[in-house]
Predict the structure.
Amino acid sequence: MQFGRALVTLAALAVCGVAAFPAEPEIRFTSTPAPGTTELDPNHVPDSVCVSMQPAHGPNEPKKTDPPYVVTVSSRKVSKGDTVRVVVKGLASETFKGIYIQGRINDLPVGRWLPHDNPQVRVLDCSPRKENALSFVSRNGINSITLEWVAPEDVKGDLIFLTTIVKSYDAFWTKVRSTPLQVL
């Protein structure tokens, strides 16, 4: 009899849209509370994340396998102030729930990201520059996202976009490399 009641309860929860099992832990790239609160500040990325690009996912480590994702750019050469489209895409129908991306020259984040119409995309600051990192986090997986990045006015050289791509809380790849780009 108890088993039957449990099944009825689970079925009722499912019909009402209530999860019968705990949800996957939240995907996040920040571990710092907003000043004066205990809430995580989605607009602040600790300096350690700016360098490591690793999400705050407890003991989980990045995957060592080849990622089922690619990061492509719309141009191979740009001048200062030019805009580049950057696409993060899953191979075949592979989806992801989060990304953290920077354009780097000599391992320093440069350039700036343009605002995105998706409210789950956040343009972030990695000191000492502004708007030089970007994150996207969602509970629902997507197959691709197109972003816009503006080349720096004061730095030239070979640039690579490094991206952390999160498939799930415990499956993510850090510093996935784009095709190279030359800033003239």
Notes: Residues 3-22, 37-41 have pLDDT under 50 and may be disordered. The two ends are 74 Å apart (CA to CA). Residues 36 and 152 are 34 Å apart (CA to CA). DSSP finds two helices and twelve strands in the chain.
